[in-house]
Design goal:
Layout: H1 5-13, H2 17-39, H3 42-58, H4 69-88, H5 95-98, H6 116-133, H7 137-149, H8 153-160, H9 164-177, H10 180-192, H11 199-216, H12 220-236, H13 241-261, H14 265-282, H15 285-301, H16 305-322, H17 325-341, H18 345-361, H19 365-381, E1 390-403, E2 406-418, H20 427-431, H21 435-439, E3 444-447, E4 455-460, E5 468-483, E6 486-500, H22 509-519, E7 521-528, E8 532-540, E9 545-554, E10 570-575, E11 582-594, E12 597-608
Antiparallel strand pairs: 1-2, 1-12, 2-3, 4-5, 5-6, 6-7, 7-8, 8-9, 9-10, 10-11, 11-12
Helix pairs in contact: 1-2, 2-3, 2-4, 2-7, 2-12, 3-4, 3-11, 6-10, 7-9, 7-10, 8-9, 11-12, 11-13, 12-13, 13-14, 14-15, 15-16, 16-17, 17-18, 17-19, 18-19
């Protein structure tokens, strides 16, 4: 029994995989007929039809009356056509005026390389268009839908929101007006250009493209929504290698989103394993390696180190055979950091030293930043026996975007290891983990051209579960700051305040408390011209606070920027309010640039000491206790 539109829409809105794909198949030809009616060009009409479906499933949750899906879809397609006509330079058309478009619109015809078949086909197309042009605009659209898709009078009436008798009268009028011999040509010509079976594939590819955009922008709900729509459409497509490849990519993206946004590691493993199995089935070595790397990360998060290392070794061999230096280096970097987690510092250092030149050769700038951070950490504190005795240590590869006097936190990747079981008195160290993660809740954290009192604000998707509101304000441009690295005048003071957005009663109290502690509160930053960030105060919503101050810095070339980001610039920070029984350091260094993007290595550590000059000593070289 054929499901009603309303039932399919409600199922699609609830996340049922195949429901929207069924709607695409049901209305594919009808939407194409409408777009052809207005655009008059097969290629443009197919593109517009695809875009109409993409728009419709992106906004499906906004449809309040699911039973009116057909007219809602028609208006969506008409808006797409209006946009296309504007791009062509046609007169500005509104939705209301589009259906009343006057007769005589000039349809464009492409100019392929001439051949007898093509010339005959173009001649037929022109003859059909000329015949259709003699009809009124409303009658022409009705005829196009009838001949192109074979839709019933009732289906056309529902789509156009007109009575069934009106459909019949328009068709009867058209048959009388068109010569009898033209009717067959109209039918054949329109059907020759209708969407082919690959139409659903193109919808899937567009959904995956938008899922990738949403994932990169940390838009969690949109990522899952687009991926589910892609999976639904794949289920309705033709079987074969291309369908399997699309399924592989959709499962992989869903696994990445599940791993990063939901921390559901077991579910992510299952999705990655399905994607990996398809890659092996297709004998696609590059895809196999890519999926194995993500599978290794998921296993690592499940504390299954042996399985993680096995996946990395397999991926490494595949990348090496493919001559992919950058990803070969990335596998070695992951192996190196995993050895550090396992307190196998010597093995970790060897893998990291092998990884660095491969990452540089492959242009993997963020990997270079993370690898340099790890090697610099080991050089600073000594590789033998690390991390035995360290209360906290961290590695990061941060990416900033510098543009027109502003600096924004683009993204970052950090390994952070904390063990506070014997450290109840080190509260400031608990509060703080990474400068840019603290001050980048709105991405843009510095605007050199802003005046005192200027501000920017908005909702931030920093938390996986809680919606947050953040506001950044320029408090002063004339601060004087004294820190261990020196005394600095004319400093810029910027404050970021983050709070919980209203209307989130559905949050579990445990989630609410966790995210409040991690994100809510105030962050104040002081920047000295030509030096950079010299002081950061973090004040959490629960009253805990930390004060980070600049201790050492190295600037490679003279600059008056509030955050000079030339390659080689480096800063080292310490805490002003930790007990003397602790030593701690956070270090940052610019290691690469690419256009507006700046890649910064970051490492940090803290340890408990018996006297202020003594670092933890290993029991013996090699693996720590």
């Amino acid at each position: 029994m054929r499901a009603d539109d309303g039932d399919l829409v409600r199922k699609a809105q609830a996340g049922e995989e195949c429901a929207f794909a069924a709607l695409v198949e049901r209305y594919r030809d009808m939407v194409y007929g409408l777009t052809y009616h207005y655009l008059g060009n097969f290629d443009d009409s197919r593109d517009a039809a695809q875009e109409a479906f993409v728009h419709s499933f992106l906004r499906l949750r906004d449809l309040r009356d699911p039973d009116r899906f057909a007219p809602w879809l028609r208006r969506t397609a008409m808006n797409v056509c209006a946009d296309a006509l504007r791009r062509r330079g046609a007169r500005l058309l509104s939705l209301e005026h589009l259906e009343d478009m006057p007769d005589g619109i000039a349809f464009s015809v492409g100019a392929p390389t001439p051949s007898t078949d093509i010339v005959e086909r173009l001649a037929a197309q022109m003859a059909v268009r000329e015949a259709l042009q003699r009809l009124s605009a409303r009658t022409r659209l009705t005829v196009t839908l009838f001949y192109l898709g074979g839709y019933s009078h009732a289906e056309i009436a529902r789509f156009l929101e007109i009575p069934v008798n009106t459909v019949r009268s328009r068709l009867q009028h058209a048959k009388r007006q068109l010569r009898e011999e033209m009717q067959t040509m109209v039918n054949d010509t329109l059907n020759a250009g209708k969407p082919d079976p690959q139409f659903t594939r193109r919808v899937v590819e567009e959904a995956l493209r938008r899922a990738n955009e949403a994932y990169d922008a940390n838009r969690k709900a949109d990522t899952f929504r687009y991926v589910e729509e892609a999976l639904a459409a794949i289920g309705q497509g033709e079987p074969g290698a291309e369908g399997r490849r699309l399924m592989m990519e959709a499962l992989w993206k869903k696994g990445q989103a599940t791993e990063v946004f939901r921390n559901a590691h077991e579910e992510a493993v299952a999705l990655f394993e399905q994607a990996q199995a398809i890659a092996e089935e297709l004998d696609d070595r590059k895809s196999q390696a890519d999926k194995l790397v993500d599978l290794a990360t998921a296993y690592s998060n499940l504390q299954q180190g042996r399985k993680a290392e096995e996946c990395l070794r397999r991926a490494l061999a595949l990348y090496e055979a493919l001559g992919d230096a950058g990803n070969h280096g990335r596998c070695l970097l992951m192996l190196g950091t995993s050895h550090l987690f396992a307190e196998e510092s010597d093995e970790g250092k060897r893998s990291l030293e092998q990884a660095l030149p491969l990452l540089e050769a492959g242009g993997q700038h963020q990997g270079v930043a993370l690898c340099r951070a790890a090697l610099d950490l080991l050089a600073d504190i000594g590789a033998h026996g690390f991390p035995a005795g360290y209360t906290r240590w961290s590695l990061g590869g941060e990416v900033l975007k510098q543009q027109a006097g502003t600096v924004a936190y683009a993204w970052g990747f950090s390994h952070i290891v904390n063990d506070w079981t014997d450290s109840p008195d080190a509260q400031p160290l608990r509060v703080f983990q990474n400068i840019f993660a603290q001050i980048g809740h709105l991405r843009k954290f510095l605007d050199a051209g802003a005046s005192e009192g200027d501000n920017w604000s908005g909702e931030t998707n920093w938390s996986d579960s809680m919606r947050l509101q953040a506001a950044v304000t320029v408090k002063s441009r004339s601060e004087r700051v004294e820190v261990p690295a020196g005394t600095f005048a004319h400093c810029l003071l910027i404050e970021q305040v983050t709070r919980e957005a209203e209307g989130q009663e559905e949050l579990l109290e445990e989630q609410r408390q966790r995210d409040r502690l991690e994100y809510c509160g105030a962050r104040q930053t002081w920047y000295a011209p030509g030096v950079g960030l010299v002081q950061l105060r973090v004040q959490r919503a629960d009253g805990a606070n930390a004060l980070l101050q600049l201790r050492e810095f190295s600037i490679q070339s003279e600059s008056q920027d509030y955050l000079p980001l030339a390659i080689g610039n480096a800063w080292a920070y310490g805490w002003a309010n930790v007990p003397e029984t602790y030593a701690a350091k956070d270090a940052y260094k610019v290691v690469a640039r690419q256009g507006d993007m700046v890649f910064v290595s970051h490492y940090g550590y803290a340890y408990r000491i018996s006297n202020a000059r003594e670092k933890p000593q290993p029991a013996s070289p090699g693996k720590g206790p």
